[in-house]
Amino acid sequence: MGSQTRRTFDREFKIETARLIVEGGRKISDVARDFDIHENVLRKWKNQYIEDTQHSFPGKGRLKPEEEELRRLKRENADLKEERDILKKALAIFSKRPR
Q1: Considering the domain boundaries, does residue 51 fall inside one?
Q2: Of 1-5, 7-11, 81-85, where does mean pLDDT reach its minimum?
Q3: How far apart are CA 20 and CA 27, in angstroms?
């Protein structure tokens, strides 16, 4: 049995294909047949394009600017909580009165 390799498509191709469907008025089934891409994949691309035209298809391992900011803020929040807990423990140690 031969193994199939997974096809990958760059951001520009996805945008242009989604644009054909959304702005060009082409049917998903026609575009799927023309480019030999499954209709469900094109439907997903179309929905992503409609949801956020400017930031759609950020790429493998990349996040949209809003998601990147959220990730950064969560990381910063965790760091601040850790620092707070360390300070609380230090305060408890230094505020103990010797007997």
Answers
A1: yes
A2: 1-5
A3: 9
pLDDT tens-digit profile of 82-97? 999 999 999 988 888 6
Whole-angstrom CA distances from 64 to 31, 41, 51, 55, 56 are 27, 20, 12, 6, 8
Q: Which two tokens stand for residue 44?
A: 């997903």
Q: CA 53, 55, 59 angle in degrees (round to 5)?
A: 125
Q: Rounded to an integer, what distance in angstroms lies between the CA atom of residue 45 and that of residue 51?
A: 10
Query: At which residue do the structure tokens 């191709």 appear?
Result: 13
H helical segments located in 1-99? 11-22, 28-35, 39-51, 65-94
Question: Domain containing 74: what range?
Answer: 11-94
Domain count, the chain: 1
| Amino acid, res. 36 | D
